[in-house]
Amino acid sequence: MPKVGRKSIGCAAGVLIVILVVVGVIVVRSIQLSQAPTQPIAFSHIVHAQANRIDCLFCHRDAATGQAATVPAVEQCMFCHSVVAVGRPEIQKLRSAWQRQQPINWVRVHRLPDLAHFYHYPHIQAGFDCSVCHGQVQQMAQVRQVRALNMGDCVGCHRQYNAVAECGKCHY
């Protein structure tokens, strides 16, 4: 029977630790993708995007021209909700924030790796529907991240559509 040295055992332990860390990250990431965060106001895309057929860009106006899609300011919500569904409890929270001139502290749902820079407008201008990355939000009572939105995910999509996949486009 061959002798197993301390070096071999240490190497095997190191490999095992790396494997456990990778599996742990994968498990945590899959949990994050499946769960929707609790928001300060229960906002339903089913009501807005599906039932009332409000286009994504009506509320997320910066997506068509800027880097981020951005969450609408309270003022923008009040354009409609100064007269629509004013008696509902969640709308009362919105109206209260408006009266106090305070923003709603929404919890971010979609996350990219920290070193990646993503711009919505080239994707919108290329004709991609928001659901390609964000899923069928019009069917979600609570929005959750449905794609990994990591480097492999983005590079795979860029290759599929023959888009530029140079490192410097997203990492600078």
Describe the structure.
This protein has nine helices and no strands. Helix 4 packs across helix 5. Helices cover 48% and strands 0% of the residues. By secondary structure, the chain is an all-alpha fold. It folds into two domains: 47-71 and 109-170, no CATH class; 72-105, no CATH class. The termini are far apart.
Helical residue percent band: 40-55%
Largest sheet: number of strands, sense, barrel closure: none
Give the overall pLDDT as a whole number: 87
How many structural domains? 2
Note the gap between the termini: 54 Å
The helix-strand sequence is HHHHHHHHH
- How much of the polypeptide forms β-strand, as a percent range? under 5%
Number of helices: 9
Low-confidence segments, given as residue ranges, are: none
Tell me the radius of gyration.
Answer: 22 Å
